[in-house]
Amino acid sequence: MKTPLKTVLISAVLTFAAFLSVTYMSCSRDKCKTIVCANNGVCNQGSCICPSGYGGTNCETVLRQKFIGNWQVFEKGSTTLASQYMLSVMEGPKITDVVIKNFYNYFNPSVIKGYVAGVNGDTLYIPNQQLMGKITFGVGYIYTTTTYGQFGQISMSYEVVDTATNIPNDFGYYPADLSAPSSWNK
């Protein structure tokens, strides 16, 4: 009598385990049935995985949009006095690019196209590039403040090297020289 009862119990447990396994697998696949990911995003276990340049719950947000606009800049470099000026950030050639006009209060937007920078999440990257006798590179982070609101301030650390003199002007990129990041405010 013990063997048939044992067999029935084992069969019941295995059947129940198989049922739970199938139910779990179908539920995890069902998580993506009602989710639509924009901009070629892909649903994986109920969440959208967004392509580069997009974000948000359903990949509906173009990440560079929070950087686009006019910014009031306050900065003091390691070799320059404190200054205040305006610059503009515009859409770049790729979805992850922006163009910065009047960067460093030097690059005249009517003469050149502007500095091309990259965006990844809340970070703005200025790759090493040479323009009008200057080599520039840097990184900045956009954030929310009570004064300037949502995505209203960028802390930008960068360096500009004059190619004629080889003298660098640092804005918080190398903290060892006690320089401070540039502050960009919308």
Written description of the protein model:
- The structure is a single chain.
- The protein is an alpha+beta fold and 186 residues long.
- It folds into two domains: 2-61, no CATH class; 67-185, Beta Barrel (Lipocalin), CATH 2.40.128.420.
- The chain has one helix and 13 strands, in the order H-E-E-E-E-E-E-E-E-E-E-E-E-E.
- The chain has one helix spanning 2-30, and strands at residues 42-44, 47-49, 54-55, 61-62, 69-75, 83-91, 97-101, 115-120, 123-131, 134-145, 149-162, 168-171, 182-185.
- The strands form three sheets. The protein has an eight-stranded antiparallel β-barrel.
- A hairpin with a 5-residue loop joins strand 11 and strand 12.
- The longest helix has 29 residues, at 2-30.
- It is elongated and about 95 Å long.
- The mean pLDDT is 85.
Topology summary:
Elements: H1 2-30, E1 42-44, E2 47-49, E3 54-55, E4 61-62, E5 69-75, E6 83-91, E7 97-101, E8 115-120, E9 123-131, E10 134-145, E11 149-162, E12 168-171, E13 182-185
Antiparallel strand pairs: 1-2, 3-4, 5-6, 5-13, 6-7, 7-8, 8-9, 9-10, 10-11, 11-12, 11-13
Q: Outline of this structure?
A:
It contains one helix and 13 strands. It is an alpha+beta fold and 186 residues long.
